[in-house]
Inverse folding.
């Protein structure tokens, strides 16, 4: 499937839409190819995006417990084994693509973790011939690592997250079809927030309206779990959540909420203005807009993430604002992970450029803020696919014409 639009989220008999069986099969095979290439015999995964990628489990989300509720064990061959919290086990029995389903505790209390390792994990590793091999783990507590060493001493633990990052980095046509639908929902969420942005409303009210649209349209969750609606002085420096601040005439308002649908995220951001903008607000908006467009244009095969970051910085520097770029990265990969490698414009130690290839997917999001003029901050964010012929922008929410004028 190769469609450049969201075709609708329902199942219909009159149009080919989403091949979920093929999607599940391809994702497992990609993960297993990375394991084989790295000489890793199995992976034990706990990060929610990796569990979703390998098992297709849509789980209840409990705040702060994303990597201790559900896991999956995958060998170099064969179907995944789901390790599910008790509340998911019965439902998971209706997922025929799984090799087995085992109940696990919340992976925090040491005694319960030991019971899991001794009675569930160790036998599974023996059955699959992994107990004497290399086991990749993406995220684990010290207790889990210590207890694996104690009860399965012959297993060698290694980095499993890197393998899943590699498997997920280049998207398949089926994944991109789902992303198109996520973007259609994300665009709608963003547009609803823009439509509700006016003087006399609070940031939290705008976020609430946008979330209503998200759930009306069948979205699973926002991209930013704490919806980012920040207005006026709250964008200089950025407050990255919605508050009870009341919007007033001449406030800029930034909206970053996004959407997830069938496990894939859309990350879309827009800045709008209440009333007529000032010249300084237009200047900052123009710098961010030009930086965004330069970054999008650089998202081409053969370039690197550093080429993209440099293009953004050059465009912003032409208006004398490079030093005012927000210290966070300028863009990031996206898919089943809300933010995932590779990152664009990361400046912290260890950052390395990544060469772009077709079907890499990015959210690119320059942000400039200044403290003068009462404080002015602008971010604009688009979803962009790298293709053989150049970048393709998947998000479609209009930019603010009053700020571009």
């Amino acid at each position: 499937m190769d469609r450049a639009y969201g075709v609708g989220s329902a199942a219909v008999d009159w149009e080919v839409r989403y091949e979920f069986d093929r999607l599940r099969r391809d994702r497992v095979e990609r993960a297993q190819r990375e394991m084989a290439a790295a000489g890793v015999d199995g992976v034990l995964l706990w990060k929610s995006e990796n569990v979703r990628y390998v098992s297709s489990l849509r789980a209840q989300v409990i705040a702060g417990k994303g990597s201790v509720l559900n896991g999956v064990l995958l060998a170099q061959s064969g179907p995944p084994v789901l390790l599910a919290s008790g509340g998911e086990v019965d439902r998971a029995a209706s997922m025929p693509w799984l090799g087995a389903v085992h109940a696990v505790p919340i992976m925090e209390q040491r005694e319960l973790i030991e019971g899991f390792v001794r009675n569930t994990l160790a036998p599974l590793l023996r059955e699959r011939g992994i107990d004497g091999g290399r086991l990749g783990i993406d995220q684990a507590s010290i207790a889990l690592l210590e207890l694996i060493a104690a009860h399965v001493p012959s297993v060698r633990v290694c980095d499993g997250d890197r393998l899943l990052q590699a498997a997920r980095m280049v998207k398949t046509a089926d994944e991109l079809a789902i992303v198109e639908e996520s973007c259609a929902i994300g665009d709608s969420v963003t547009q609803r927030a823009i439509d509700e942005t006016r003087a006399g409303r609070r940031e939290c009210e705008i976020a609430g309206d946008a979330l209503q649209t998200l759930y009306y349209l069948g979205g699973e969750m926002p991209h930013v779990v704490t919806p980012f609606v920040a207005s006026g002085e709250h964008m200089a420096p950025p407050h990255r959540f919605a508050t009870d601040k009341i919007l007033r005439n001449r406030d800029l308002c930034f909206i970053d909420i996004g959407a997830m649908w069938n496990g894939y995220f859309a990350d879309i951001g827009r800045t709008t203005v209440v009333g007529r903008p000032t010249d300084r607000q237009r200047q900052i908006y123009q710098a961010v807009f030009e930086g965004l467009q330069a970054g999008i244009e650089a998202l081409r095969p053969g370039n690197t993430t550093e080429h993209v970051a440099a293009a953004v910085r050059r465009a912003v520097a032409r208006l004398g604002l490079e030093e005012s770029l927000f210290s966070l990265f300028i863009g990031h990969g996206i898919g089943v992970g809300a933010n995932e490698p590779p990152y664009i414009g990361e400046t912290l130690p260890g950052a390395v450029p990544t060469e772009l290839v077709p079907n890499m997917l990015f959210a690119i999001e320059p942000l400039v803020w200044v403290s003068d003029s009462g404080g002015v901050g602008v971010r604009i964010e688009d979803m962009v696919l790298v293709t053989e012929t150049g970048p393709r922008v998947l998000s479609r929410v209009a930019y603010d014409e009053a700020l571009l004028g």
